[in-house]
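A quick aside before the break. I want you to see a complete sequence-to-structure record at least once, exactly as it would be stored in a machine-readable document. Don't worry about memorizing anything.
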Amino acid sequence: MGTNAKIAISSGILALAAAGGIAAWITMGNIEHTDAAAEIYQNGKLLKTIPLLEDTEFTVNCENGYNVITVCNGKISVSKADCFDKVCVNMGEISGNTPIVCLPHRLEIRVINGKNEIDANI
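That is the input. The structure line, written in tokens, reads:
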């Protein structure tokens, strides 16, 4: 078998593998995460797990202040907080694996999807 034939076969295999990877990525991005939920932690302890399919709003209080957590359209955010830097509020809405953290209030919000974390903002 000549060098050109080996290159052609290798290129074909690589193209098929790439096409398969792209198809899998597109398919995974279009799957509706019906069991998506968020875990709310404070001081490293799990306070509650809430589904992201139910719109809600609640307040988490601590000795230093509060965070208002909002779930809307499958995404979660800290909509209000009385911390000095407001990094948690400025994170905006999340639905993927980037957590929201409020260091002054020792609060962390993690999005989960059953056993697997959601890997991209959809």
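Two observations worth writing down. The chain has a mean pLDDT of 81. The longest strand covers residues 65-72. We'll return to this after the break.
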